[in-house]
């Protein structure tokens, strides 16, 4: 009897730092060896000849079964979303537990745990803070963080969920005390409101005006402010879904000054365009998300920011709203709805890695190691999942994706395996496709067939880690966060 349960044999192993020809030995749920010609006696051999062996993807920003204030939820169940993840090579997600006004966090988080445990993909949460009242800040945030949810998410815009600058400061301070990172949706609430009112008064209500209501400048301003206030509190933050070079420059400037500020972008800002929202009829609603997709110059600028390392994570921001179903999803308010009443977001769990591989590696914009850093390693590091996730190393979870770098695929919705009835990437041709996904040692997807058992997901509790420790640099050396609740 050999020492491995499974051996992935004959592939090219890629991590965030290396590309080597090697076998991977798996014992139980764990990688136990990497080397040439590992003994295979008694082991199941998984042939990786001609394939790349990559760490399973980590998607650190996706909305799954998220509840709306009216009690309805985003369409994908955790089980369906897990299938979509595995189909696209992703084996871990960080999704959201959403607090609404007046709610304590304990029961909110418990409900999302209950839901997520029914899926197959390993998960953690960002705790959304919509209402940082005293008990939430004083008692709940420390408890949530101690339970392993080591990131808080805030919106600086959206009517029902935004927090103002003073509230943002309270959340930053609470995160600093508890040892969590804060992730930020950065757009200027009042400027969007002002522009929106003008557009509606002028009768400009079609989906394409969604982009007019939130031009880049309002994202740049909010990014600048989010960073400045985080500097004031000395609290590490990540700016979510950066849509172009202007907000990316704000992040680069902060990084140049040594601040702990990170940025992510998403495939929609690399391959979609504001013009997509101007398709005939209601079709443009398929592409309505926030920030809005922009144009070629912005996606070129984003690739530059990615190559420079300013943007070091690409998430999906998967937000499933079907397009064709009457009365729900994008049609919730009818097909004549003004842009203000179209649910925001695009689905993308399964499309994320193939699009980034194709647009990045296959088109020569980035190398293989950068692809791994963008799609798994950096998210695992920033959010405290490393080295269990995000790499191929002895002791890491055996989460692997066996990737065919030459396979050409035209993206269609049936390949996405989500509950949503469309993909904004329909018809996009990609080179490079996941052939086998292995999650904690089990083959969970082969040739598009997902075989994982619902209920096999594990919660990924995240303990304290150095990367998100505050720098200890405060204006005047005065730590207001130690005083202000
Ligand atoms: N924007 C978000 O901030 N979240 C979900 C979807 C979207 O478009
Ligand atoms: Zn957002
Ligand atoms: Zn989001």
Tell me briefly what this model is.
The chain is an alpha/beta fold. Helices cover 29% and strands 22% of the residues. It has 12 helices and 19 strands.
How would you describe the overall organization of this protein?
With 485 residues, the protein is an alpha/beta fold. The protein is 29% helix and 22% strand. It contains twelve helices and 19 strands. It has helices at residues 78-87, 105-116, 134-146, 165-178, 189-201, 209-212, 216-233, 245-256, 268-271, 296-308, 352-362, 368-382, and strands at residues 6-14, 19-27, 30-35, 44-47, 52-55, 57-59, 62-63, 90-98, 122-128, 151-155, 181-185, 237-239, 261-265, 311-314, 318-319, 400-410, 429-439, 442-446, 449-450. Strands 1, 2, 3, 4, 5, 16, 17, 18 and 19 form a nine-stranded mixed beta sheet that branches. Strands 6-8-9-10-11-12-13-14 form an eight-stranded parallel beta sheet. It has a two-stranded parallel ribbon with strand order 7-15. Helix 3 links the parallel strand 9 and strand 10. The longest helix is centred in the middle third of the chain and has 18 residues, at 216-233. The model has no long low-confidence stretch (mean pLDDT 97). Bound molecules: dihydropyrimidine-2,4(1H,3H)-dione and zinc ion (ZN) (2 copies). The site of one zinc ion has 3 residues, from loops. One zinc ion binds next to loops.
* Helical segment count: 12
Largest sheet: 9 strands, mixed
Report the average pLDDT across residues. Answer: 97
Please count the beta strands (DSSP E, at least 2 residues each).
Answer: 19
Helix content: 25-40%
**What's the alpha carbon Rg, rounded to whole Å?**
22 Å
**Ligand inventory:** dihydropyrimidine-2,4(1H,3H)-dione, zinc ion
Strand content: 15-25%
């Amino acid at each position: 009897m050999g020492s491995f349960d499974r051996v992935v044999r004959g592939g090219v192993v890629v991590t965030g730092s290396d590309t080597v020809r090697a076998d991977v030995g798996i014992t139980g749920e764990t990688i136990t060896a990497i080397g040439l010609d590992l003994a295979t006696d008694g082991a199941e051999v998984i042939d990786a000849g001609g394939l790349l062996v990559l760490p399973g993807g980590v998607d650190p920003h996706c909305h799954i079964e998220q509840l709306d204030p009216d009690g309805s939820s985003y369409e994908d169940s955790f089980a369906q979303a897990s299938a979509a993840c595995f189909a696209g090579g992703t084996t871990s997600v960080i999704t959201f537990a959403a607090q609404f006004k007046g709610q304590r966090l304990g029961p909110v988080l418990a409900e999302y745990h209950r839901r997520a445990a029914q899926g197959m993909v390993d998960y953690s949460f960002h705790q959304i803070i919509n209402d940082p009242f005293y008990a939430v800040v004083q008692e709940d945030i420390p408890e949530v963080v101690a339970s392993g949810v080591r990131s808080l998410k805030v919106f600086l815009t959206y009517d029902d969920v935004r927090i103002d600058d003073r509230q943002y400061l309270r959340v930053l301070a609470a995160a600093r005390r508890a040892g969590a990172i804060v992730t930020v949706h950065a757009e200027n609430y009042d400027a969007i409101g002002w522009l929106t009112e003008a557009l509606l008064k002028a009768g400009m209500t079609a989906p394409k005006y969604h982009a007019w209501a939130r031009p880049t400048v309002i994202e740049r301003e909010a990014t600048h402010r989010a960073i400045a206030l985080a500097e004031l509190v000395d609290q590490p933050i990540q700016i979510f879904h950066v849509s172009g070079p202007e907000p990316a420059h704000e992040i680069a400037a902060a990084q140049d000054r040594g601040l702990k500020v990170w940025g992510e972008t998403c495939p929609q800002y690399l391959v979609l365009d504001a013009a997509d929202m101007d398709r005939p009829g209601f079709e443009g609603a398929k592409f309505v998300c926030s920030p809005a997709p922009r144009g070629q110059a912005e996606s070129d600028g984003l690739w530059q920011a990615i190559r420079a390392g300013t943007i070091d994570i690409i998430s999906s921001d998967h937000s499933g709203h079907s397009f064709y179903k009457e009365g729900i999803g994008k049609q919730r308010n009818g097909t004549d709805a003004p842009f203000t009443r179209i649910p925001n977001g695009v689905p993308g769990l399964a499309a994320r890695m193939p699009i980034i591989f194709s647009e990045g590696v296959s088109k020569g914009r980035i190398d293989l190691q950068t692809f791994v850093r963008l799609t798994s390693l950096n998210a695992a590091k920033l959010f405290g999942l490393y080295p269990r996730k995000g790499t191929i190393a002895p002791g890491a979870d055996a989460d692997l994706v066996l990737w065919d770098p030459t396979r050409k695929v035209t993206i269609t919705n049936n390949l996405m395996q989500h509950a949503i009835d469309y993909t904004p990437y329909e018809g996009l041709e990609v080179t490079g496709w996941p052939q086998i996904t292995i999650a904690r040692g089990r083959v969970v997807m082969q040739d598009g067939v997902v075989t994982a058992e619902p209920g096999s997901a594990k919660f990924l509790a995240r303990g304290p880690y150095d990367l998100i420790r505050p720098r200890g640099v405060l204006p005047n050396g005065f730590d207001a966060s130690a005083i202000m609740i």
